[in-house]
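User: I've been going back and forth on whether these two constructs are worth ordering. Before I decide, could you fold them both?

Assistant: Sure. I'll take them in the order you sent them. The first construct and its structure tokens:
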Amino acid sequence: MPELPEVEVCRRVIEPHVLNQIVTDVVVRNSKMRWPITPTISDICSEKVIYVNRRAKYLLLGTSKGILMLHLGMSGTIRVIDKDTLVTKHDHFDLILENGLALRLNDPRRFGSVLWVTKDINEHPLIKKLGPEPLSPEFTDDCLYKKSRNKTAPIKTFLMNNHIVVGVGNIYANESLFKAGIDPRKQAGKVSKKRYIELTTHIKETLAHAIEQGGTTLKDFTQSDGKPGYFAQELLVYGRGGMPCFVCKEKLKEIKQAGRATVFCPECQKK
């Protein structure tokens, strides 16, 4: 699944090609996504794209009339291509631009979404209850500590709750907890304020580095311009279960938490 750094890289790659362009057409080849593509999606035609933003893992293309809200789902990709590029399997949606380019969404599993929003985006059901952006000033040193009091969930599960903070997906939760030396099984409410301050710093640094490196290269991810990301080769624990820890050489342990793979070092991440 593309995580926050991948989506932010996608935003940065497509922005120069989309910003201030007039939308000339939309092509819907399959409207049956995670939610049906908004029937009035063609209302974006003749509108100028005035900003390309991101909230959590949603890409937001703003116009004076409304906002095109895109989500990549589990395995989706958005590419900037010539509008006449040959259509391939799973190419479900095109946004055609005045400059002869198109944004094309390819989504084999169809867990992504294409929604046209004409009301306040911050009040949209998918956006309204989201936590702060991890790279924003709102994600302060004591943010996690305050929200974690009396929480009995494992800290890794707590971190991945988008109501707490957005964008700390499975990969980066694993990596950040390792860097902070925190056992992912520890109850969130029992982690000290000092440890949370350290963890917050590692979350910010890990995500910022991933964005700088172009996103994590996993099975399905390529950047919007077709170039792969380069961060996966630098992962310290994720995907390395059973291998030696880079720090202490102890064998990394892999378990399941809430159905997701958790990898940690029993020595470096003691409760």
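The second construct, handled the same way:
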Amino acid sequence: MHKVIVSVVLFKHSYADLKPTLESLFLSPLIEKIILVDNDESEWASTLINPKVVYVKSDGNYGFGYGHNLAIQKYARESDYFLICNPDIQFTQSEFQKIVNFAETRVEGLFLPKIVYPSGENQFGARLLPSPLNLFARRFAPKLADQLDQQYLLKDMDLSQPVFVPNLSGCFMFFRSVNLLELEGFDERFFMYLEDIDLSRRCAEKFGTIYYPLATVIHHHEQSSYKNTKLLKAHLQSALKYFNKWGWFFDLKKTKLNDKCLDQAIFKRNT
């Protein structure tokens, strides 16, 4: 049986917040350890009694990527696969088994199942790598964003079968551990937001990234940065860091990866 280790970063989360996710993780015989990284005020996790749980208290809230990196650096070598998991995820064991079974047949480094809301509505977790216009329009020009999202969120692409996609959502990143270690985890310069896009694109370029829509995971998700001024500021700061790193208007690697995705595409027919 292949070993899976999971990391979940906590920040002022209560047990009630995390309960649905923990129940999903506890029930899987494939998951050997669940690393709960406490970035702030979730000390209850240190008293959680379950043989799978490992509690790690970070030195402070230095970001989402920083917290997961603590777990990756210490535990990823013990596993075949490493799941970076949000604290608001739910899944059945049959769906999780599908993901592991599929990864066993592939050579790529990162896999993402179909991510849906509790209602079953698609969250479009598989995306192209963004341009500055994609991200800033989504914050400040919703009508323009709706037009751009048709391509950015691959809404016109038939995603009914596994396919290469360079930008996979950070809420459920199922990595081959050896590849994640070679990538050295997240770039900790991103405190919050876009660190998942950065890591996904690095993996896409070096090892490959696959969207696997034949398994489904529920994400109890709300886009807080749209409503909270402080989080919006953090989102904008991360966007500046991302485009300063990869390029604002001349990002040839982005173009190559996006074209690779679109070139293999089967597009939905208008009816």
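Notes on the second construct follow. Residues 229-246 form the longest helix (18 residues). The chain has a mean pLDDT of 92.
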